[in-house]
Amino acid sequence: MDNDKESGIAYWKANLSLVKWSLVIWAIVSFGFGIVLRPLLSGIKIGGTDLGFWFAQQGSIYVFLILIFFYAWRMNALDKKFGVDEE
After folding, report:
1. pTM (two decimals)
2. Do 28 and 64 touch, CB atoms closer than 8 A?
3. What stretch of H or E contains 50?
4. pLDDT tens readout for residues 13-28
5. What ranges do the domains of the chain cover?
6. How many CB atoms sit inside 10 A of residue 75's CB?
7. What are the Cα distances from residue 52, in Å, to 2, 44, 68, 70?
8. Residue 73: phi, psi to the nearest 5?
């Protein structure tokens, strides 16, 4: 029983760590690049507009979509590692 409990704790630690780092990356990209660093990025042009505006309008959405697929991929690997996969 203790082994199952330890395995469950390790599984949730890994899951929460993955969620935490995904949210940190998304916050840096959306808030950091789109708002805080926008004046510094205004000189760089991408797609006819400055890079800060692009991050605020589209870049953070693209990063969020990439993080969704990354999270799903890593969670499938974690599920297999801890033996809780659906297959």
Report:
1. 0.81
2. no
3. strand 49-50
4. 999 999 999 999 999 9
5. 15-82
6. 15
7. 51, 8, 22, 24
8. -65, -45
